[in-house]
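Tip: read the tokens left to right.
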């Protein structure tokens, strides 16, 4: 049995986004001691962060071996790790998820610090940066629709078949985290990223109004359906309809006769405009502007401290970075963030469940002239009554 402690928490979420699950007392004692338990949700995410920690330790060892003082090496390696991660998010992940156009518009190319180049249309640069709820409760949760129901971790799993992320049978093995890693469950990143031409990586699901069955039965949570939890959270925060957000941003909304919750709208927008292979103009701009805005507001980020900085050791994407953890060769290049959608009849189409609870919402004009969201029939999802737009 191999314990995979997590010591490095990344600042941006990538690849697989799932919520924290409740752990039974007998399981909690095996959980990694980390600042955010979501980094140990499942064995894939936990090993992603463990791989980053392994690269950190490898670079530290190199510095110490050549006589660099320990604290100087530590500060340098921490800075280099952050910069590599930031560069990958900005130059590899965001362009493929949100589209290169919105990234280029938000942060035009140039040698000046990012704080001077940032061009946010909806989220202006702030010296006291925060995470908008439109990002955290809606747009970024596009990742939930990209999660597969089951995964292959390595060659051994390829011979046995994919394993479910969360099994409905509590006695059956699955990929949930918060425990010691069983022997033979080590992630081989060739099955997730284009590192080896002999191995075809598993692509994420295309973006659309559906989630994997595993995410409709989150262990230890009530309700256990992630879509239901997300819609209720958007309702509690008073998020406006996606169509209203699109109109405010000057975009032509999809499904213009509807008033979809913002999260659901982002999913429909990606599917209808881009076949689910990247985000649309509303969701993509929200995600791009928030992440780039955080980098631009951080004086220590590479886009401010050294705008012309580029990665070392041939790193050009996440695959080539993680290859360093295994001592492998650089990756062969980027793979589409979404590849195919092999949806079976068990997948949960978000058009269907809870239709009596989640439907259109309406923009109403109150007596004082302010616009508000209100319920107008029994098939409506509403924000809190009287929430101002």
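Filled-in amino acids:
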């Amino acid at each position: 049995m191999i314990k995979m402690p997590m010591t490095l928490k990344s600042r941006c979420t990538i690849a697989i986004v799932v919520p924290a699950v409740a752990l039974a007392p007998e399981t909690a004692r095996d959980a990694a001691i980390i600042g955010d338990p979501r980094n140990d949700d499942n064995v894939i995410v936990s090993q992603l962060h463990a791989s980053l920690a392994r690269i950190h330790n490898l670079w530290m060892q190199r510095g110490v071996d050549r006589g660099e003082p320990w604290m100087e090496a530590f500060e340098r390696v921490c800075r280099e790790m952050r910069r590599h991660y930031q560069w990958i998010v900005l130059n590899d992940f965001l362009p493929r998820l949100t589209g290169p156009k919105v990234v280029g518009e938000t942060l035009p190319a140039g040698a000046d610090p990012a704080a001077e180049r940032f061009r946010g249309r909806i989220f202006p640069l702030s010296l006291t940066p925060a995470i908008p709820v439109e990002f955290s409760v809606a747009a970024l949760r596009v990742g939930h629709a990209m999660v597969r129901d089951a995964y292959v971790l390595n060659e051994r799993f390829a011979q046995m078949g994919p394993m479910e992320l969360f099994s409905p049978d509590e006695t059956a093995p699955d990929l949930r985290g918060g425990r010691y890693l069983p022997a033979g469950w080590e992630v081989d990143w060739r099955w997730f990223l284009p590192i080896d031409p002999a191995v075809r990586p598993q692509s994420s699901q295309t973006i659309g109004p559906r989630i994997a069955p595993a995410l409709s039965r989150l262990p230890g949570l009530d309700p256990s359906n992630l879509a239901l939890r997300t819609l209720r959270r958007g309702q509690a925060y008073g998020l406006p309809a996606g169509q209203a957000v699109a109109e405010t941003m000057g975009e032509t909304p999809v499904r213009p006769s509807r008033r979809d919750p913002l999260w659901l709208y982002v999913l429909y927008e990606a599917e209808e405009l881009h076949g689910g292979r990247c985000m649309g103009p509303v969701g993509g701009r929200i995600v791009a502007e928030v992440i780039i805005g955080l980098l631009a507001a951080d004086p220590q980020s590479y886009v401010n401290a050294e705008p012309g900085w580029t990665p070392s050791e041939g790193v050009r994407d996440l695959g080539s970075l993680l290859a360093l953890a295994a001592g492998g060769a650089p990756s062969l290049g980027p793979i589409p963030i979404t590849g195919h959608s092999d949806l079976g009849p068990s997948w949960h189409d978000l058009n269907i469940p809870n239709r009596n609870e989640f439907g259109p919402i309406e923009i109403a004009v109150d007596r004082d002239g302010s616009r508000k969201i209100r319920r107008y029939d029994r098939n409506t999802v509403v924000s809190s009554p009287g929430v101002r737009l």
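The two ends are 53 Å apart (CA to CA). The first strand starts at residue 150 and ends at 151.
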